[in-house]
Design goal:
The structure holds two protein chains of two kinds.
Chain A: E1 2-13, E2 16-27, E3 31-35, H1 42-48, E4 59-67, E5 70-71, H2 79-85, E6 86-89, H3 100-110, H4 117-130, H5 134-137, H6 150-163, E7 168-172, H7 180-193, E8 198-202, H8 206-212, E9 215-220, E10 223-229, H9 230-235, H10 240-246
Parallel strand pairs in A: 3-8, 3-9, 6-7, 7-8
Antiparallel strand pairs in A: 1-2, 1-4, 4-5, 9-10
Helix pairs in contact in A: 3-4, 3-6, 4-6
Chain B: H1 6-39, H2 45-49, E1 52-53, E2 58-59, H3 62-93, H4 98-110, H5 115-129, H6 136-160, H7 164-171, H8 177-205, H9 209-212, H10 234-243, H11 250-281
Antiparallel strand pairs in B: 1-2
Helix pairs in contact in B: 1-11, 3-6, 3-8, 3-10, 4-6, 5-6, 6-8, 7-8, 8-11, 10-11
Classes of the chains: A alpha/beta, B mainly alpha.
Amino acid sequence: MSKISVKNFNLYYTNFHALKNININIKEKRITAMIGPSGCGKSTLLRSINRINDTIEGAHTSGEINISGKNIYDTEMDVDVLRRNVGMVFQRPNPFPISIYENVAFGLKVNRIASNKSVIDETVEKSLKAVLLWDDIKDKLRKSALDLTLERQQRLCIARVIAVAPYIILLDEPCSSLDPVATRRIEELMIQLKDEYTIVMVTHNMQQAARISYDTAFMLLGELIEFEKTEKIFTNPSRKETEDYVTGRFG
Amino acid sequence: MIKLSPKLSQKLSYSILFLATILAIVPVVVIIFTIIKNGASAITWDFLTSMPKDGMRTGGILPAVLGTFSIVTCAISITLPIGVFAAIYLNEYTRNNLLTRIIKLAIVNLAGVPSVVYGLFGLGIFVMFLKLGVSVIAGALTLSIMELPVIITTARGALNSVPYSFREASLSLGVSRWQTIRHIVLPNALPGILTGTILSIARISGETAPILFTASVFYVPHLPHSIFDQVMTLPYHLYIVSTQIPNMPKKIIFGTALVLLIMVLTISFMAIIARIYFRKHRKW
């Protein structure tokens, strides 16, 4: 069953045609990877799924992105509700300059999802446990989030997203500022999370896509070249461009 | 054209740059030194807390101090919210099109309008047209209009310094744009806004022209009761004692100048302290 279904989707940055007629069906509770050289539009496509691209000046779109059958570019769509359902983790860990606890509780409090302290405490604990951070930092919840290591900051950012109970999590090169060990651990975390969340990840690292994703989309110059089972993309791609890229002939 | 050796031209340019710096500092030092030397003896508790007597030739400057204080307080409480709200609107809500570029350019240029023009504007609009008369409120409104572009510009700078990634992180949690501003952008921009505001207070405390026709008078025999009172103010009082009254003791003139100077420098110094404090505690 497909959770996210993109139909004839185009995106322009003012006059620049960044995404060209994209059609893709992303499956529920799987990790889907998007690969391709810099500037191919993979991040742009990812950022279209929670409409965070709306904040960029001059960005406009045509076509549809349907989530659970609803077109999110419909004029009636409440963008704030959409973004609560479709969380996003960024390239550089970006915790707020407040305490660890307040970071995780932020979405709950500000969105008024919960106001009862015990409910918030519980959600903070549950979210930090989900990212395997709880045991390490349960005594330092009042400390500034910026004092954590980059890996822990990135886990915290994932916990912050989980706290507002999304069903899709978008990750934009989540490991690009982490060392290999930390990368490995975040990958393990993503494998665990896919049982509960639909995960879409942009990555520069082809091995990462091969290691953890179920499906892989290969993009080039704003076009979706190939979308297949990850195994097929890396061992027996149908398109010449895909083969050239995954075998390292360019990119 | 004379060709200088690299060594000589290095020495020469160093000397010119050094001389320019000295020329910039010397007048400030001389001014401060002269004022302190001639005015320090006038500063007594009595001078600060009593009414002027004998046609200002003896007594204190209390009404002028209080007048300046009330005008500045009024002005900043009008200009700060308007300026910050306008800065938020311009920075966070508008797209970068021709109209907003013109608005932003206009605001920057407004800061260059001579203060006496604001004074005459205030006289025409607030004192005469709105019939507020020469009063604290008319002077405060005039000063606040003059200071608005400065507040907007510094507030926009402070808002801009908040990393965009904070906004993105907040928006992507489904937090609305206004809530993002309120909970993330503003708290992180506050230090910058605060230091800018303190500097604005220092600047308008010493302004004379805008309050010359709108708030200040030669002499009031009582302390200000309400914002509709006309008042004495420090900068205008200094002008009066320096030029309008014969046989004025030098000590009173320099004493008044010293009080004004200390007031402005103290406020500026507070801004410096605040800036150091916030810089130390800022993590990003």
